[in-house]
């Protein structure tokens, strides 16, 4: 994929920290230039989230995509949560990173699909966290 100039789809199912390594071989767009080799990218398949603290990997994925021209071009985004995943205070930074990724790289009408593998817990106290957005974006809702 490193030689592609007009990639539309990359299949794979990787963690947020692995996706950037997969895509870093593609050259970044020159500074100040619009477009880039990923300007037509519509899908990257599945981002696997396995732990509580994966925000840095998701943010790095966003930076790699944007640097290569992927700006609001993804038509969909699939995120897979590991078994026994708990949405709560400790996972809020990762969820906010996914929301930033959606805002930067997905079309406004792109569906975000969250799939839980196995048991999923949701701690309602997340709504009272200081970092919880006062006006959540549609993807965060």
**Portion of residues within helices:** 10-25%
Q: Give the radius of gyration.
A: 15 Å
Largest sheet: spatial strand order: 1-2-3-5
Helix- and strand-based class? alpha/beta
**What ranges have pLDDT less than 50 throughout 5 or more consecutive residues?**
none
Number of DSSP helices? 3
Overall morphology = globular
Q: What is the first-to-last residue Cα distance? A: 34 Å
Strand content: 15-25%
Largest beta-sheet characterization? 4 strands, parallel
Number of strands: 6
Provide the residue-averaged pLDDT. 91
Oligomer: single chain
Order of helix and strand elements from N to C terminus:
EHEHEEHEE
Characterize the structure shown.
Helices cover 23% and strands 16% of the residues. With 141 residues, it is of the alpha/beta class. The chain has a domain at 13-18 and 40-128. It has a four-stranded parallel β-sheet with strand order 1-2-3-5, with no helix packed on it. The protein starts with 12 loop residues before the first strand and ends in a 19-residue tail after the last strand.
